Model the fold of this input.
Amino acid sequence: HEDHDITIDPVVRACFVEVPEPTLHESLGDLERLQQALAAEWDLRDLGCEPSVLRDLQQVLADGKRQVTVAIRKDQRIVAIWPGFKEELYGIAFDVGSTTVAAHLCDLASGEVLASAGKMNPQIRYGEDLMSRVSYIMMNPGGEEKLIAAVRQAMNELIAEVAGQVEADVTDIVEITVVGNPIMQHLVLGISPVQLGTAPFALATDSSVDVRAAEIDIDINAGGHVYALPCIAGHVGADAAGVLLAEAPQKHAGVSLIVDVGTNAELLLGNADRVLAASSPTGPAFEGAQLSSGQRAAPGAIERVRIDPETLEPRFRVIGCEHWSDDPKFAEEETQVTGICGSGIIEVIAEMFTAGIIAADGKIKASTSERVVEDGRTLAYVLHDGDPAIRISQNDVRAIQLAKAALHAGAKLLMEHFGVETVDRIRLAGAFGAHIDVKFAMVLGLIPECDLEEVSSAGNAAGTGARIALLDRKSRALIEQQVRDVEKIETAIEPRFQEHFVDAMAIPDGNNPNVESPAPGQKRKRRGRRGRA
Done:
């Protein structure tokens, strides 16, 4: 987890009270006695009550010998009750991605993350990407219900898993926050995402949604609630709102660019005066998908690559092994190499360019090295000659060029609207941002020019935002206001986006003085400090 200073002021808190015994002399009901006790001991007045609490109230009072712990939400409503003194109340922050769903169980009083778990989003069987899932719903009667049920089931399995990790009951969980892209947010809430499949990409609501968990089949305490953060626009979801809450570009000097790279890259650009948002269709290449040897970041995936510019011989590191491939211990440990993930593909292409294996237009050049081999009508670079062989094909290079051009063009478009030539700092959010070496991102022209010292990883900023919304009640009104103030730029209808996209296809875009390229014939003077390898 990112260490983040979060104000702990949860929406739900536990109050322990003793409720007086009923007598024949007064006709007060037990709920009214409970309300009086809470007013006297905790100064909480005019409290509403969830039906599930009223249903169990008298049994719980009997079990606790009139001493009970109640969960009060927003100082307005009794949402849960337990016999005796109960110390821990839990909440879960969910990050519902199109590929993976992640859950973080927090102690609502201390804010501590006690357990985390993640799993593949089971909707993948209805379509790898979001638009193919929307198409599935449009083409298949009952498709919407299937997708809704699939994502909720994944959430319920994760709830049981994280509760099990701390030996808690799921009824001890009283609050959930959710961030996700607009289509995921709609499906979790049981809303059709069909309108998001075509222009003008209309959201059912761009406000936050606060519902009883039971109403959307989420298995926590019967009186527990789900708070879904607001979406920013039809393509910029509540996950970006979470990033905005966690990263707070308004609080930093200068102009910040925050990029959350998934199948869609969501970009935020701003300072204390204004924040702009857009999404860019990068596709899944950065996550290792749709590449000849690509895979997700998991043990066995190549994640780091260096190529000797003289011999063109590579060495690499694999997730799950701390030795480089040219270290004798690498062979001794019989390290399994299964494919290459996003950070590895960025590095290998940047290194291939730097070593002169590929030209600035991305074309793999003929070479005397036996590492460069014929591959149909084009060439490929053999990174690992094993089983399976890991090759970087011309199509792989093109896929990354397209993805990085889309990302770069989105950033350039926002900068143009903002009226700046350069940005002061860049934050890379998401799993991709956590694994990538920023120097290589700069060599490839993935991100605009910036001093390397000011480029850093923001970890899972969307998930951090969901945790802030879970643990700090004031943050909810804050993010709702900020989302209304964000200026949305729709890349799909901006003619300049295509121009920037075409300009950004070359590697690199030839004018980044922050990174020195030692490739033959491409020497450039550089400005600023150079990043460490």
Summary: The mean pLDDT is 91. The chain has 14 helices and 22 strands. Residues 68 and 84 are 5 Å apart (CA to CA).
